[in-house]
Amino acid sequence: MKEAIVQPDLKVDIVDSEIPVPKDDEVVTKVVVSGSNPKDWKRPVMSKQAMNSGDDIAGVVHQVGRNVYEFKPGDRVAAFHQMMAPGGSFAEYAVSWAHTTFHIPNHTSFEEAASIPLAAMTAAIGLYQRLEGLPLPWHPTTKPTPLIVYGAASAVGAYAIKLCQLSNIHPLICIAGRGIPFVETLISPEKGDIILDYRPGNDQLVADLQSAVSKVPGGKIHYAFDAVSEHHSFQNISHVLDTSTGQITLVLPGKDYSAIPASIAQTTTMVGAVHADMDQRRFQKATGSRTGDMEFGYVMFRFFGRGLAEGWLRGHPTEVVAGGLGGISGALMDLKEGRASAVKYVFRLEETEGVERYRTN
């Protein structure tokens, strides 16, 4: 099979590799479309290691391990590949654990499906596993629950808004820039949701945040989802989060977040938790429970599949990058330079030189 190996300088080598064989609890999928994420350039650059860094899979099941009972060859699926493990999505065939694989309906395109796994699960973990007290989508709140979404036009931020809509979490204070027109399609102004523009600068944004918070029920805000976690985002949020009950979850591990007041509870949302539980301070450790982030991931991926089938969940807008695997290098450079706004870059494997055109069964 053809496989793209991303070098630390973001050049890409397309090599011939063996088709992976699934372990007992794994699924091997023939990739029709691969998604991409900012971490796909960050991992090779920061680790100085060449790798197949893709994780968003959409395609047709090729083979399953002996313990897999939900999937069979020919099923249309999307899946989240385990980060840093062999078998990434920048290849004709990719590997996922069965619990991070989910069925997609016939009316959902592979392009749309490829926009979902990593970003939507990051949003779900942040809202429901890291921020304490927010209602799950199947038990929406009836009380005002103000929440800040910083980076609202990003895929993670947009999925956070979509999940908040299902959980009836409002009013939302959404921070965005070039993607504001897209965010306007996601929010509910009639429930108090607003969008603030970060581009006039941090001082103006903080003033706008303070004004917005003064108008929410109770005049305080307790929750923030920072889908950016750099460029002064968490410092701006810290100016308005309640200092006694405020919670913020961030998405970039290993950064210095000491600017956040100690009285504000902070967590880091790492989507890899669905492959290896990262219970930071409660749940399993506190209760001795045998369930945690991995089981949450299992449930939520199937929830996403049902949402696609029922029509109450949609993927993120996509842009098909020409050339299949041959387009990855340019797309990752664009992600690194911040050229993507309100869009996911996806790659059709059949457009790769030497790869056969995909045909439905």
Q: Mind explaining what this structure looks like?
A:
There is one protein chain. With 361 residues, the chain is of the alpha/beta class. The protein is 27% helix and 20% strand. It has ten helices and 15 strands. Strands 3, 4, 5, 6, 7, 14 and 15 form a seven-stranded mixed β-sheet that branches. A six-stranded parallel β-sheet has the order 10-9-8-11-12-13, sandwiched between helices. It has a two-stranded antiparallel ribbon with strand order 1-2. α10 links the parallel β14 and β15. α3 (117-130) crosses α4 (155-167) and α3 (117-130) packs across α9 (293-310). It is globular, with a radius of gyration of 20 Å. The model has no long low-confidence stretch (mean pLDDT 95).
Measured distance between first and last alpha carbons: 20 Å
As a whole number of angstroms, the C-alpha radius of gyration is 20 Å
How confident overall, as mean pLDDT?
A: 95
Strand content: 15-25%
The helix tally amounts to 10
Number of strands: 15
Largest sheet: 7 strands, mixed
Can you give the helix content as a percent range? 25-40%
Poorly predicted segments: none
